[in-house]
Amino acid sequence: MTATLQAPTTAPELRRRHVAAVVACHFTAAFAALGLPPYLPQLLPALGDPHATWAGALYVVPTAATALSAPLWGRLADRYGRKRLLLRAQLGLAVAFLLTSQVQAVTALAATLALQGLLGGTFAATGAYLAAGLSGPRLAKALTAAQASARAALAVAPTAAGLLATHVDVRGMYAIAALGPLVAAGLTLALPEPRPATTTAAPADPLSGSGPAPSIRLLCVLEAAFVLATVVTFPYLLPVVQAAWPTAGPALAGALFALPHVCYLLAAPLVMPRLDPIRGLTAAFALVALGAAAHPAAVTWASPPLLVTGRLLLGAGLTCGLVALAKLTARAAAAHPPGRLFGTVEAWSKGGAVAAGLSASILAGLSGPAAPALFGAVIAALSVSFILRSSR
Fold first, then answer.
1. 9-196: which CATH topology?
2. How far is 225 from 163, CA to CA, in rounded Å?
3. So what's the pLDDT on residue 197?
4. Of the residues 101, 122, 355, 378, which has the fewest C-beta atoms closer than 10 A?
């Protein structure tokens, strides 16, 4: 892979308690943002859409809006301060949630969901803040922890929201959800503002976050491809489970959905010190290709063991891929302004997620619920070939 060796950036390092607070803030914001979208179909009939026809389109609105706004917010973070822009993202998300709790029409809901993306962007803001105060291996570990907080929220939030839904309607849930980013903003106020980094020479460590820095363009392509290959398997997993394992109940289906994310939470700390980012990312795409391909095979043969194997392989690929991308991002942060870097990468990541959602919807309609997973396997296999050619 073509790369120019860059001297790592030595920033005023944040302490462990600061990193823990930032990760906790990200979990709090992500918990609210990820837990409520699955319940949009319950809200739409009250807004004049009795069959929840717009649920699929509305689901991707915040993601698409984040893809459009993230680069701008990143550049503003470099100019006006990463702490200020992290606070802006948290408060913006809270305002958007409060507005969503008051909607009376589908168009108003679409507008407030767009505001969640335009005013939010907490992951990019979190990454920019961490990169301004950490470097090398410590930054890679902090980014992995932030990603773990998002995976934990993804695994837990829908279930928690489901329990809340038995007592409060969906609009009331959005009002309560606004407390999450508000609490995060309160915690962020107590954090220091990292100063601009100064450049010093340091030896490269191929297993850490230091080493040859990838270009932003290459990092964005890898990020988007990984998100596309993995996320495209998510939307139609429940019909896949029903076809491959007819006796599986809702609880088991939910456990299978969460399984790759649980694998990441358990394995990422073990993988972090040992994984070479380029080899690890190559292995990650290969594992994702195998895991995704197992989904349609499990449907064809009605094989629960094959489905479980596919979910475990996907979890292994998710672990290697996210850790490898965190290390590559830490390397890139040594050579680029943090806000610009994380804003641009986040835009490509969200673009990959939008493409995954649209592709899944189209392919499932044409060829059945297992088709999106097969598409993800193809994307992952092509990515393996791309990395191998680029690294020669």
1. Growth Hormone; Chain: A; (1.20.1250)
2. 34
3. 46
4. 378
